[in-house]
Design goal:
The protein is mainly alpha-helical and 545 residues long. The protein has five domains: 97 residues, no CATH class; 140 residues, Orthogonal Bundle (Neutral Protease, domain 2); 107 residues, Tetratricopeptide repeat domain (Serine Threonine Protein Phosphatase 5, Tetratricopeptide repeat), CATH 1.25.40.10; 88 residues, no CATH class; 66 residues. It is built from 28 helices and eight strands. The strands form three sheets. Strands 1-5-4 form a three-stranded mixed beta sheet, with helices on both faces. A three-stranded antiparallel beta sheet has the order 6-7-8. Strands 2-3 form a two-stranded antiparallel sheet.
Length: 545
């Protein structure tokens, strides 16, 4: 365990020395759980379509409150456990610094850095050593066409099915290795340009052609002979100071209650509630005074819609440890769901006082202020959240809706654009942020820019999902009667009437606007942001507060 901790910290230090601009620190703690062997690790492996993915040697689980790196020290396969932990930690670093990397690049970089080794009394490091299983797979299997490789996402069979994942990881590693070190590093600067283009909203295929000045077939022709070479180039780095942290590590055994808590919380964050409950109940049975287990058990009860029991667990945790910010935050969330808004706000405020670096707490506090009718406090709170967590897209999404509701179009556009830059065009909320940006532009009288933008959005958004028909309507490609025919339930009708009403209002047709906005007022979903948006626009039309 001590050796693992030392190596992980050395890897973190090495990355910060090699790439000084990388953000390697985060307020969200990272816990490493190491199982002795694959048999004990198996019940905690991720599942795909309900089945345990046996091929997984380790994984990285990210959450708003805790990150987990999980792996087995003794694997059934030929993977070195340190390869796995470096792979997973590299994911963590990348997600702190870059947005929307395609799966092949994300996994290829993680595999490239997984080969990290320290030598010469901890003063030299090596990156990019060839990974034998990947070389073997690539020499004994047919390469996946790059067009297919570039289309793989986290839902694809190539990412999840063991019969296909092997070649996906191997080819992703090989392509990244070639782009960084192959051909006398002539493609390395192009890879950096490709990443920059992705960060600036350029679609993957367009960014590829612009950065590499080649089509997929050309790069495939370069990659094939590279895979058959007998020696591969590597990166060797010398450090001015010895990379050693062994003397800084404090070692202590953890209690049975702590061990059961960590296993239970890991399963809880994986949303495996029944299995999590067994471990968490055992933790509080062994040590009823262990506050963290009560916090996790309260969160589990909350997910089970057992609000009163959740509150009891959070109150117990706070009584045992008043400085546990997470207990205050989660208790506040339970109070918010019970519309005990004043009490919820106090709990959120306490959580922020105890730990002011967690952006998601500001988000929840802002929602509580909104529900209390304190819009200015909500906007101020979200702004503070952005200050401490500038890469949290949910903060920009919430600000975008609130500012659009207040007809502050210019700032709404900024926040919607920032969301799209972070999450891209295919996220679940991307279409809504495109709508916010469009209407924000309309509110600021930039009608020509709004018209150009909605055409661009129509090309980039997922056309198979609602609310894409609204985008088509705004492009004048879908008549209004066909739009409402596609709004198949009250949720979609609420959104359709709200945005159509806003469009009529901005076009100066107040009578038609009022008709749709009043429908939302009288029949719409009151828990939707579009309900508040409709009421605000209706008030402006009627010139009432």
């Amino acid at each position: 365990m001590r050796k693992v901790a030392t190596k992980l910290e050395q890897f973190r230090q090495a990355l910060s020395v090699i790439f000084p601009k990388l953000q390697v620190d985060t307020p969200i703690p990272t816990t490493v759980i190491i199982f002795k062997a694959d048999d004990s690790f198996r019940p905690f492996k991720p599942r795909y379509k309900g089945k345990i993915n046996d091929k997984v040697g380790g994984y990285f689980l990210t959450g708003p409150e805790m990150n987990y790196i999980v792996f087995a020290n003794e694997n059934r396969g030929d993977e070195n456990p340190y390869d796995i932990i470096f792979h997973e930690y590299e994911h963590f670093i990348v997600r702190n610094n870059l947005f929307r990397l395609p799966a092949w690049l994300d996994e290829g970089l993680a595999e490239f850095y997984s080969s990290f080794e320290i030598s010469d009394k901890d003063q030299k490091g090596t990156l990019g050593s060839p990974i034998s299983r990947h070389v073997y797979n690539l020499r004994n299997a047919t390469m996946v066409p790059l067009k297919t490789l570039f289309s793989v996402d986290h839902k694809s069979p190539y990412y999840n099915e063991s019969s296909k994942a092997g070649i996906f990881y191997a080819e992703s590693w090989a392509l990244v290795h070639y782009l960084i070190l192959g051909n006398d590093q002539k493609r390395q600067s192009q890879l950096i340009k490709f990443i920059d283009l992705i960060q600036n909203d350029v679609p993957t295929e367009q960014g590829f052609r612009e950065a590499f000045q080649a089509d997929y077939e050309t790069l495939e022709d370069e990659l094939r002979p590279y895979l058959n070479r007998s020696l591969y180039p590597v990166v060797r780095v010398s450090f001015k100071q010895r990379l050693s942290t062994d003397h800084d590590i404090v070692v202590r055994p953890i209690s049975e209650a702590e061990a059961e808590y960590y296993l239970g919380d890991l399963l809880l964050q994986s949303n495996r509630l029944e299995e999590a409950e067994s471990h968490l109940q055992k933790s509080v049975t062994v040590d009823a005074a262990f506050a963290a287990a009560h916090v996790a058990l309260g969160e589990l009860r909350s997910r089970q819609d057992r609000g009163s029991e959740a509150s009891e667990e959070f109150e117990t945790a706070i009584r045992l440890d008043q400085n546990n910010y997470l207990a205050h935050y989660l208790y506040g969330r339970t109070l918010y769901r019970e519309t005990r808004l004043e009490e919820a706000i106090k709990q959120y405020q306490t959580a922020i006082t105890l730990n002011p670096q967690m952006g998601f707490v500001y988000l929840s506090l802002a929602y509580a202020y909104l529900a209390s009718g304190e819009d200015s406090e909500a906007i101020d709170t979200l702004g503070r959240g952005v200050g401490v967590d500038p890469k949290n897209p949910l903060l920009y999404r919430s600000l975008g809706f609130i500012l659009l509701q207040q007809a502050r179009g210019e700032v709404a556009v900024y926040n919607a654009s920032t969301y799209l830059r972070i999450k891209g065009w295919l996220d679940d909320a991307s279409s809504y942020m495109a709508l916010v940006k469009y209407f924000g532009l309309r509110q600021t009288k930039k009608d020509a820019e709004a018209a150009r933008f909605v055409i661009e959005a129509g090309l980039l958004l997922d056309a198979s999902e609602w609310p894409y028909p609204l985008v088509q309507y705004l492009e004048h490609k879908l008549p209004i009667d066909q739009l409402f025919a596609k709004a198949s339930d009250n949720e979609k009708l609420t959104e359709a009437h709200a945005y159509v009403g806003l469009e009529f209002s901005l076009n100066g047709d107040r009578a038609s606007a009022a008709e749709h906005l009043q429908w939302v007022r009288d029949h719409g979903r009151k828990d939707f942001v579009e309900y508040l948006l409709a009421l605000a626009e209706l008030a402006r039309i009627e010139q009432t507060p």
